[in-house]
């Protein structure tokens, strides 16, 4: 059986199974199509073009490889005469007259479909040469009147893509004598607007973008169309599915966006199909053969959890003798943390360079200098940028990024519960943040893959080979008007280098630094609102979250519950903070800190509000204690209100014990802040009504018991050392 063809409209064919006219015979066979493109160097865009051509089995011949590009700056200015010269030379030698040439740009082009569809649409155009069309006239708008009118569609010629039979193309370029920097578009325009020549060469425009979609002037017309496991770009103005997408003029970023999907790089059904391509394997390497990475660490503002940052850096899965560190610290506040890290662990690394705050080097200079450390190092394979506010939870991040083998790749990190991330999906007209259509889906992980984006920051890996070539300019981060990250991304984009963000894995998050104050000793304690997850990881007992499931809550005396709450760091920080503050009460009955000024059962203590910690403490009680209260005393709901919450100090020669008393609370939380047998002897708590004592308090564990009426209790004597507890009278 043969596929048959019925003419329906002038340009449309219906093929069916029958035996009238043979459809195949009229078609141009796919092997008659040759794609010609000019690429003087292999940019990321060129590789993307080739990949899409290969995907559809196009036969591509590349002209001008290794030649110096002299056709003007391909990012902006007119030019392209070099392309015509190379085309002229190429077609002059071609013999087969029935061959069809597709001459197309490649740095900003991808194929959205295969040769068969392209040739069918070419034939349906019923001309020997078909040029892509544009809605904007360029480069000479005075020629507008000379253009033939079109009933519907774009009126103007675009030279970034055209196709035709060899004899016609040869004839069309035969007269070319221009300079390499002359405009190819103007040359072809003049042929086209000259009626006799247009007729003789049999040229038409693809006015409705059936073959070619130039994006300039058409951004609103083009949308992605997902269907049956495939993805195309659709021109919604003309309801066409262009075969070739061209990010001409200032539409490179939109092309990058479309190129994240087309051709079938990512679909709903398949997910990412390119993510496993071209990987670099590390598994066969000995540790000593691992690529050498310079890690640039930048501290540009006071930042919480800096010591945790360095603990994580130590745990990064990578041979330390293949890592060099460049640490730039602009914050005196963090000097101690940096120097103690370097003192204790610096020698594990192959090399360390650090810039101290006194050097007053600005952010851009430090980043330029860090790049240069890798650029000048013949051994350096990668530069890994790591800003101090990055919380890299995934210890394999560096290996994962290296394996991905991309020019520049950032692991996606986000701010917890927010749409804030370390990449932008699009740029506004003035170069700032704009939200791409897929941004939210990417940030929230509904689309996972590798995404070519216009802006990345905070954490990313750069190939050293780029720093020695495309990115060899020293001052990539320096700009009059842009901040260092924006300046860097701007420079990368203008060199035609692609930046990717990877959200195939969970990598970590980014801290909020805006409200970080540095007036206390352990400022991280105050971060429970700004960075709640980091606060929890830093301070809450490691077994807290599984205590209900695993029944870890103990019941040492009637209605007294005992459970793990703080970790050692929290206990130590709280004690040190109070000792640092130092204004311990005298333990007398007169107490100006409380309402009424009279304390019935005084202790040597410091109230949370004396160190401005009551809001944070209440949040802590609400988040971490209230759920346990409601579990153990069902039906009682608490908002964790308190008038009194304080840290008590027991010392043999100061105040060793507390006489029996009731608490002015519905329930009381009593957290042991240090370790019996190590920090002190004795201590504990006795409930008189039940004659029941807890004599071996555990550091970080909380006692929860009713305050009034039933749980008359006393603090047992501390016989040596110093004992600290944190007490809260909840719901007074
Ligand atoms: C490309 O060619 C290969 C082998 O020649 C074939 O397996 C594949 O299906 C072709 N792909 C397309 C899109 O035609
Ligand atoms: C262009 O060529 C087609 C055949 O490919 C022919 O039918 C048509 O008349 C020609 N048009 C002009 C204007 O010569
Ligand atoms: C080439 O130049 C000749 C002589 O100027 C002219 O007649 C002819 O139309 C030109 N051909 C094209 C395709 O421009
Ligand atoms: C948490 O529980 C595990 C298993 O019961 C135990 O080995 C570990 O010591 C506990 N962690 C702490 C800090 O007590």
Show the helix and strand layout.
Layout lengths: L1 E6 L5 E6 L4 H4 L6 E6 L5 H12 L4 E4 L17 H12 L7 E5 L4 E3 L3 H10 L4 E6 L21 E10 H9 L9 H9 L2 H7 L1 E4 L5 E3 L7 E6 L2 E6 L8 E3 L5 H8 L6 E2 L3 E2 L19 E8 L6 H10 L7 E7 L5 H11 L5 E5 L7 H13 L4 E8 L2 E3 L4 H8 L3 E4 L11 E2 L1 E2 L5 E2 L4 H5 L6 E4 L1 E2 L2 E5 H5 L15 H11 L4 E4 L5 E3 L21 H8 L14 E4 L2 E5 L3 H14 L23 E3 L6 H19 L9 E9 L7 E4 L5 E6 L7 E3 L2 E3 L4 E3 L6 E6 L6 E3 L2 E4 L1 E8 L2
Helix pairs in contact: 3-5, 9-10
The chain binds 2-acetamido-2-deoxy-beta-D-glucopyranose (4 copies).
Describe this structure in words.
- The protein is an alpha+beta fold and 732 residues long.
- Helix 3 packs across helix 5 (166-174) and helix 9 runs parallel beside helix 10 (335-345).
- The termini are far apart.
- The structure holds 2-acetamido-2-deoxy-beta-D-glucopyranose (4 copies).
- The site of one 2-acetamido-2-deoxy-beta-D-glucopyranose has 3 residues, from loops.
- It is a peripheral membrane protein.
- It comes from Poecilia formosa.
- Keywords: Dioxygenase, Endoplasmic reticulum, Glycoprotein, Iron, Membrane, Metal-binding, Oxidoreductase, Signal, Vitamin C.
- Residues 1-23 form the signal peptide.
